[in-house]
Write a structure and sequence with these properties.
Shape: globular
Largest sheet: 7 strands, mixed
Oligomer: single chain
CATH architecture of the largest domain: 3-Layer(aba) Sandwich
Distance between the termini: 67 Å
C-alpha cells in the first residue's frame, strides 16, 4: 500500500508539473541603485538615461512605447512591494498604508487630509461622479476624447439620474480649447469633468484655466488625472480644482492596483461619500447605544475610502515616489519632453502620409503622440508592430480609430526609430 501510494504521488506530481508552465525571469534582477541627482540632468545624456533603463526589468528586445496604458515598475518598487507583503505575512502586521497619503500629498501639491487612497483612477472618478449634488437636467461638460473610466460613470449617472452631458473636441491650442469649454456653458451647467491629458492623443488641456473659469461661474471642477503625475510637474492647489483622480501605475511607475483621489478640504462637505468602512468614520459610532450612535465621517479625505488595503502595494507607491525624486521630477519631465518632441518631429517628416493628432503647441503636448497612417488600417499596423516587438496602442474610443505611442524615461531614440521604420515600410 505504501509503495502504491508513493507511486501515485510521484505520478501525480509529474502530471502536475507537466501542465504548469513556470514563467521565465531574468536572473539579473537588480541593477546598481541610482544615486540621488542634485541639479539638472541633460535630457540627451544617453549615458545617464541608459543607467535609468537598467533599473527596469523590461524585455531588452521590446521597444515598449505604451507607458500611457501601463508603466513598468523599476526594481526598487518591485522590491518594496515584496518586502511590504513579507512584513505583513511574517509579523501579521495590519495598517500602515495611511502613511502613503502624506507622501502623495507632497508629490502633487496637496495637504495630507485631502488625499484618499484608491485602487485606480476609475475608483476616484466614480467617487466624484456619484458624490456631486446633481439632479435631473443638470449639465456636465466633458470631451469627445474620454476613456471608458471617465466616460461610463457619467453616462451611467445620466441613465440613472437624468443629468445631461455636453461635449467639446479639444482644439490644437490651449486658448481655443478653453474657448470651446466656455461655449458650452448655460444656466443649467453645474460641473466640468475633463481629463488633464486625454488618453487618446495625449494633449495637455489647460486645466488651471478651465478650473479658474469653472469656479468663477460657480461650477464644480473635476480633473481626470490618469496621465498627469509622473509626467508633468503637478501642483493641485495651484491648479484650483475641486477634485482630481489619478493612479500610480502609469507615469508614476508604481504598483498596479493603486491610485489616489484629491478632494479639496473645503469641498469635502459638498462631495458626498457613499462607499465607506473602517477609517471613513470618526470612531464615534456605537451599535449598542440607545439610540444607536451614528458617528460622523472622518474629518479628511479618508471618508472616501475604508477597510483593509494592500500595505505592500502602498509601500511600492512610496518607493515609486522615492525613485522619481532620486532622479528629479523636473529632469524626468524634460526627458519625457525630449523623447516626445523627437517622436513628433519624426512623424511630421512623413508629411501628408501620416496625420499627427497631438498638437504641436509646446504647452499642449507632453509624453504621448497620437497619429494615423494614410491608407493603413490601424489594427493591421498594430499587429505589424507587435510582430516586430514594438508595443504601441490602438485608439478605438469614440471612433477615433488611430494609433498612440507614449514614451517615458526608460525609452530611447533608437526605439522610436524602430517604430518610424515600420511606419515607413507601411
Amino acid at each position: 500500500m505504501q509503495a502504491n501510494r508513493r507511486k501515485f504521488l510521484q505520478q501525480s506530481s509529474a502530471a502536475l508539473l507537466g501542465t504548469v508552465v513556470l514563467p521565465s525571469f531574468s536572473t539579473d534582477i537588480q541593477a546598481a541603485p541610482l544615486a540621488k541627482v542634485e541639479g539638472n540632468i541633460t535630457p540627451s545624456d544617453e549615458t545617464y538615461w541608459s543607467m535609468v533603463r537598467q533599473q527596469f526589468p523590461l524585455n531588452k528586445d521590446l521597444a515598449y512605447l505604451n507607458n500611457g496604458t501601463m508603466g513598468p515598475s523599476p526594481y526598487p518598487v518591485i522590491e518594496a512591494v515584496k518586502k511590504g507583503m513579507m512584513e505583513g505575512d511574517v509579523n501579521g502586521s495590519y495598517g500602515g498604508w495611511e502613511a502613503t497619503q502624506a507622501k502623495l500629498a507632497k508629490f502633487v501639491g496637496a495637504d495630507e487630509n485631502e488625499i484618499a487612497l484608491t485602487h485606480n483612477v476609475t475608483d476616484g472618478i466614480n467617487i466624484v461622479c456619484w458624490g456631486l449634488p446633481l439632479k435631473k437636467g443638470d449639465e456636465v461638460i466633458m470631451t469627445t476624447h474620454e476613456h471608458v473610466g471617465n466616460a461610463f460613470p457619467w453616462l451611467n449617472r445620466q441613465m440613472v439620474h437624468g443629468i445631461v452631458i455636453k461635449v467639446f473636441t479639444p482644439a490644437s491650442t490651449a486658448e481655443e480649447t478653453l474657448e470651446r469649454v466656455k461655449a458650452l456653458y448655460t444656466k443649467k451647467t453645474r460641473a466640468v469633468a475633463v481629463p488633464h491629458i486625454p488618453c487618446t492623443q495625449g494633449q495637455v488641456l489647460p486645466a488651471k484655466e478651465i478650473c479658474t473659469w469653472a469656479k468663477e461661474n460657480g461650477l464644480f471642477a473635476f480633473i481626470d488625472g490618469a496621465h498627469g503625475p509622473g509626467m508633468l510637474l503637478v501642483d493641485l492647489h495651484e491648479m484650483g480644482c475641486d477634485a482630481y483622480a489619478s493612479c500610480s501605475h502609469k507615469w508614476m511607475l508604481g504598483p498596479k492596483g493603486t491610485g489616489f483621489l484629491y478632494v479639496k478640504k473645503s469641498f469635502q462637505q459638498t462631495l458626498q461619500t457613499y462607499f465607506v468602512g473602517g477609517g471613513s468614520d470618526n470612531g464615534k459610532w456605537n451599535m449598542a447605544s440607545t439610540p444607536i450612535a451614528t458617528g460622523a465621517y472622518a474629518d479628511s479625505a479618508h471618508r472616501y475610502y475604508g477597510g483593509t488595503q494592500a500595505s505592500g502595494l502602498y509601500k511600492g507607491v512610496d518607493a515609486a515616489i522615492d525613485f522619481i525624486e532620486t532622479i528629479g521630477m523636473a529632469n524626468i519631465h524634460e526627458r519625457i519632453m525630449y523623447l516626445s518632441s523627437y517622436a513628433q518631429a519624426e512623424l511630421l517628416k512623413f508629411g501628408d502620409k501620416v496625420e499627427l493628432i497631438t498638437p504641436t503647441e509646446v504647452r499642449s503636448r507632453a509624453g504621448v503622440n497620437g497619429f494615423r497612417i494614410k491608407g493603413v488600417n490601424f489594427n493591421d499596423f498594430y499587429k505589424t508592430c507587435a510582430d516586430n516587438k514594438v508595443r504601441i496602442r490602438v485608439v478605438q474610443e469614440n471612433s477615433l480609430n488611430s494609433l498612440r505611442m507614449s514614451t517615458h524615461i526608460y525609452n530611447t531614440k533608437e526605439e522610436i526609430d524602430r517604430l518610424m521604420a515600420l511606419i515607413q515600410k507601411a
